[in-house]
């Protein structure tokens, strides 16, 4: 199959039909939106890849369940406030995504535990092509989501996972994308 690629590495012939966008459908790069420092690296990479490939970015914001709510009215008010804050965060990053990728992103807002919600979305939404995460740069390690989704759960994810080193500069990320 050595003749399946051009000198610049692009696939040709049958190999070309096996890669790229199936049926003209754009690739969808999923980024989990949170307030971590490294999330910006994942968003920049996904946006640059989407722009380069004619794809689209999907943003997933997860509202984690409250630790406790002793009174129903307080719990409801907390849930409403959390949802409003999550929507604002999602829309703020959506605006950034449009600037970086050139297209409006697909938006998802879910409630639950992050690892479970990411896995569930990947199982139920056949449009998502790639999950893009970034590693934390602190002493605590790569981050809970990276650890959870690349450990034992990795075999249960149906799409490739791209992990962007969180310590890369914008220029380095753009060169890789």
UniProtKB/TrEMBL annotation:
A Pfam short name: Usp
Q: Where is this region: Disordered?
A: 1-20
UniProt domain UspA: residue ranges: 27-165
Name the domain of life this protein comes from. Bacteria
Protein's name according to its UniProt entry: Universal stress protein UspA
Annotated source species: Caenispirillum salinarum AK4
What is the taxonomic lineage of the source species? Answer: Bacteria, Pseudomonadati, Pseudomonadota, Alphaproteobacteria, Rhodospirillales
């Amino acid at each position: 199959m050595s003749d399946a690629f051009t000198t610049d590495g692009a696939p040709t012939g049958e190999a070309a039909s096996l890669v790229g966008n199936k049926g003209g459908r754009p690739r969808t790069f999923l980024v989990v939106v949170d307030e971590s420092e490294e999330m910006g690296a994942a968003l920049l990479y996904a946006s640059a890849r989407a722009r380069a490939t004619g794809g689209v970015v999907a943003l997933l914001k997860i509202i984690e369940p409250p630790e406790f709510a002793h009174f129903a009215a307080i719990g409801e008010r907390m849930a409403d406030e959390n949802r409003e804050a999550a929507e604002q965060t999602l829309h703020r990053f959506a605006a950034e995504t449009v600037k970086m990728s050139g297209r409006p992103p697909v938006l998802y807002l879910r409630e639950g535990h992050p690892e479970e919600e990411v896995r569930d979305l990947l199982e139920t939404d056949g449009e998502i092509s790639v999950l893009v995460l970034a590693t934390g740069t602190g002493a605590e390690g790569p981050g809970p989501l990276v650890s959870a989704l690349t450990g034992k759960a990795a075999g249960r994810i149906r799409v490739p996972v791209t992990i962007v080193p969180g310590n890369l500069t914008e220029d380095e990320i753009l060169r890789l994308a």
